[in-house]
Design goal:
Order of helices and strands: HEEEHEEEEEEEEHEEHEEEEEEEEHHEE
């Protein structure tokens, strides 16, 4: 009896130990892939923002704003005589953009982004006039209009100015009304195509195995490292429920590919948890060149001596080299050990960029190195 109780306790402990690892490796299929054909469409339009407090476009630098205002007034029945010098400091020409999600129907609203395309100083307090939003085919799919919400702030007086965030752009929540829908076709001939977010044969195989376990053998077939063909029910009434189960299916993933991403412009380094380092020796040092230009001014001793003021350039160039020593980096099998080993070098982020590149060249860095 005691032995049986011990076996049950041991099995329970093993399940408790293994459960967090399994859940940590599982992800929903909707986070890994998307259905082919279910996509958003970009919309764009050109419009005018009015009601600005003297912070709009200037006539000389942005003649298209005056031309657009004249055309709009003519459509409203107002004729502006040619040669009229219109003051448009309260008007700004803008570009309006938004995304039309899949399955959007006429009458629904969209958030729009409004950005100045002239030399307007600020769009705060402006109102966007009715702007048609077109797709890539030139058709109008939505109409935008409303008051702008600008997140920045600024003030200027006497040649001094202060500004927080961007004033030449803003958003209009629910500022566009959809006028035309885009047909969405995702089931063709009884099959649905799944597109993974990344090209990975291991993930594709894991997704196929999970789908076949859930819905039966032959339901899913991996065409390549990114596309998976899925057999869907022929009854349209059952397709939505079937695809909902597909999206929420938990997939056990293989370990992620080791990767280090380096941003050479900002000096930032990001690495995932599968990065490892083999034992290596590293020596690094800094070399800097300091150039100090100076001007020496020589003037005559008396104002009536007839001499001239002479300015001579004196430039000093100095090279500074910091001493370095060979540092030993031990084998690091997990991310915590990798971070500890790199921090022990005492290198700056800029030095770390070169160190990681050299470790990769020497074969000591077990990861893909991406420089962006």
């Amino acid at each position: 009896m005691i032995r049986l109780f011990s076996r049950h306790c041991l099995a329970l402990i093993l399940c408790m130990v293994m459960l967090p690892w399994t859940s940590a490796q599982a992800e929903r299929l909707k986070d890994l892939a998307s259905f082919q054909g279910v996509r958003a469409n970009q919309l764009i339009g050109y419009g005018l923002v009015v009601g600005l407090d003297g912070s709009g476009d200037q006539v000389r630098q942005t003649p298209f704003t005056q031309q657009s205002l004249t055309n709009m007034l003519s459509q409203l029945g107002v004729t502006v005589p040619q040669g009229t010098n219109m003051q448009i400091k309260n008007v700004a020409a803008v570009m309006v953009t938004t995304r039309l999600p899949a399955f959007t129907q006429p009458g629904q609203t969209l958030d729009v982004v409004v950005s100045s395309m002239g030399n307007a100083k600020s769009l705060r307090g402006g109102t966007l006039l009715m702007t048609p939003l077109k797709g890539a085919n030139g058709q109008v799919y939505a109409l935008a209009q409303g008051n702008l919400l600008v997140g920045g702030a600024g003030a200027s007086q006497g040649g001094s100015s202060v500004q927080v965030n961007q004033l030449n752009g803003g958003i209009i929540p629910d500022g566009a009304i959809v006028e035309r829908d885009v047909p969405t076709s995702y089931v063709q001939g009884g099959t649905v195509s799944l597109e993974l977010n990344t090209n990975d044969f291991g993930i594709a195989q894991s997704v196929v195995a999970a789908l076949n376990r859930k819905f039966g053998a032959g339901t899913a077939l991996a065409l390549n490292a990114r596309s998976i063909q899925l057999q869907a029910p022929t009854d349209p009434m059952r397709q939505t429920a079937f695809l909902s189960q597909v999206e929420n299916l938990q997939v056990n993933l293989p370990p992620a590919r080791a990767r280090v991403v380096i941003n050479a412009r900002t000096g930032s380094v990001v690495m995932n948890r599968t990065v490892t380092i083999d034992e290596a020796a590293i020596a690094y040092g800094n070399l800097s060149v300091v150039i100090s230009p100076q001007q020496a001014v020589s003037q005559p001793t008396t104002p009536f001596g007839g001499g001239q003021t002479v300015v001579t350039e004196n430039t000093q160039i100095e090279m500074r080299s910091e001493s370095g020593s060979i540092q030993r980096v031990t084998t690091s099998a997990n991310l915590a050990d990798v971070v500890k080993a790199l921090n022990a070098l005492g290198a700056t982020p800029q030095d770390l960029l070169s160190i990681l590149q050299n470790l990769k060249s020497a074969g000591a860095l077990r990861a893909d190195l991406d420089v962006i």
